[in-house]
Write a structure and sequence with these properties.
183 residues, mainly alpha, DNAb Helicase, Chain A, globular, ATP binding, DNA binding, DNA_helicase_N/primase_C, DNA_heli_DnaB-like_N_sf, ATP-binding
Amino acid sequence: MAAPLHLAPPVAEPVHDRDPIEHSVDVAHLDAEACCLSALMQISAAQARPIIDTLTVGDFTDSAHGALYRLIHGLIRRGQPHDYVMVAHEIDQHPGGIDHHRAQLRQHLVRVVGAATFPERAPHYAKAVVAQSYRRSFETAAQALQEATATVATDDLYEYMCRLGRRQRDAHARYAAICAATE
């Protein structure tokens, strides 16, 4: 008898001996990135375009989510259907052009599909992703400034700090714009 067909390798069972608060980031329906991706795959291209014009791959903490976003973004830009099935098809058709192993990316796609999102909330999920990225950017800027005190010439420190400040100002403007668009 033939072995059963598996569309994606099984997702690992959740670990129950961990702190529930710590474990909550592993639950897809509590993950803004997973919810955003799930909702993007359920809305029309016209509804998705303002979101993909705002989001970048770098906004995603999880590199697999970033890879899935890159695929969804590409499908929408090319005017192709961008639902779950077509994203899975993209994973299978272009395994060499993806930063992740195909099976692992399909596992992430299954997890995202299971996020049970509300498609009409896609702009709000995108806002949450941008907000998380914005908060991380301050940590990155602080680390860069701390490193600069040891590696950048004294005469160049002020300009370096100003560059970081301008980057944070731009990040703030981007965050403010998505907040205004979702009110």
